[in-house]
From TrEMBL:
Protein name: Type II secretion system protein
Gene Ontology cellular component list: plasma membrane
Subcellular location: Cell membrane
Membrane topology: Multi-pass membrane protein
Keyword terms of this UniProt record: Cell membrane, Membrane, Transmembrane, Transmembrane helix
TM segment ranges: 6-29, 107-127, 139-159, 289-311
Domain Type II secretion system protein GspF, residue spans: 178-306
Pfam families: T2SSF
Length: 319
């Protein structure tokens, strides 16, 4: 085997092993965080059932997460982050929509982007000196810049995926939250106490929706106007359905109409909309199945059905 092919195989194996190691660490950390969150919710529920008031989990709103790696990213990011108020508000809104409410999130994120780009570029140059020593200087510079760009924009991709996943969870939990809110309001509860009750009931089934309703209730307790708190909820979730719900509640509060009747009508219309969306997905399914049928299922059926006949005909002609 030539030396160049051997070096390429070794580099590919090192890259695959590194990717598997990073993936395993990420999966372990995710499992650990999920288990810790579930145990914390069970502990809080146990304290509430035993009559002891649990500490409100509001430190994520203003607190800054600390740790050796996070602190290092924070120090680097503070030198790189922007100081314009408009850009800072836009960055904070991005993190709020992803469910990240730490005070030092913009600085940590910028530090991760800068160090990620430099780290991937340095790693590529290290691999180049070990395995790709014959690579030209121009190609090395282009590849190093490409890996630096990948490392710089990789946190943006992670934040976008996290925001999309959280938005799907909110969209999935909105019908249940709306039905529970209708039941609470029709039972005689106010809109403030109803949102708090729904947030407590959905703590284990849909954590993002529970958190958003809890922060809405905290804003109302802090003295913010209900109209502003509802608009902040629509801005944080970035969902059309939540926006329509908050608009309905604002108009109901403004004109003094029945909240229970308005929520009941909106729940019925939302249920009809979900039914229409399911019908739309079912109608699109045959079109989406055409390509897999042509590429995978039809060739397999052709081989299974026509294969024995073609083999027999070939044997007959050979004799």
């Amino acid at each position: 085997m030539p030396q160049e092919n051997l070096a390429l195989i070794v580099a590919a194996m090192v890259f695959v092993i590194a990717c598997l190691l990073v993936l395993s660490v990420a999966l372990y950390w995710r499992h650990r965080e999920t288990r810790k969150r579930i145990m914390e919710k069970i502990r809080q529920d146990g304290l509430e059932l035993s009559g002891v008031e649990a500490e409100p989990a509001v430190q994520e709103i203003t607190g800054a997460k600390r740790g050796p790696i996070v602190s290092f990213f924070d120090r680097v990011g503070k030198r790189m982050k922007t100081e314009k108020p408009s850009e800072l508000r836009a960055q904070q809104l991005r993190f709020l929509r992803a469910g990240i409410r730490m005070e030092n999130a913009p600085a940590v994120f910028m530090g991760a982007k800068c160090l990620g780009g430099l780290g991937l570029a340095f790693g590529f140059l290290l691999l180049k000196t070990v395995f790709f020593s014959l690579m030209s200087a121009r190609l090395t510079a282009v590849a190093a810049c490409a890996t630096a760009l990948v490392g710089f924009y990789l946190p943006d991709l992670w934040l976008r995926l996290k925001t999309s996943r959280r938005r799907k969870q909110l969209r999935r939990g909105l019908p249940d939250a709306l039905d529970l809110m209708v039941v609470c309001v029709e039972a005689g509860m106010g809109i403030d106490s109803a949102t708090y009750r729904v947030s407590e009931e959905m703590k284990l089934t849909n954590a993002p929706m529970s958190d958003e309703l809890k922060y809405l209730n905290l804003e109302l307790r802090a003295g913010k106007a209900r109209r502003d708190a509802l608009r902040n909820l629509a801005l944080r979730t970035d969902l059309e359905d939540v926006n329509s719900l908050t608009t309905l509640l604002i108009q109901t509060d403004k004109f003094g109409t029945s909240v229970a009747q308005a929520l009941r009508v909106h729940s019925d219309s939302f249920r009809t909309k979900r039914h229409q969306m399911a019908e739309e997905l079912a109608a699109k399914l045959p079109v989406k199945l055409v390509l897999p049928l042509i590429l995978f299922i039809f060739p397999s059926l052709f081989v299974v059905i026509m294969g024995p006949a073609m083999i027999r005909a070939f044997r007959t002609f050979m004799k």
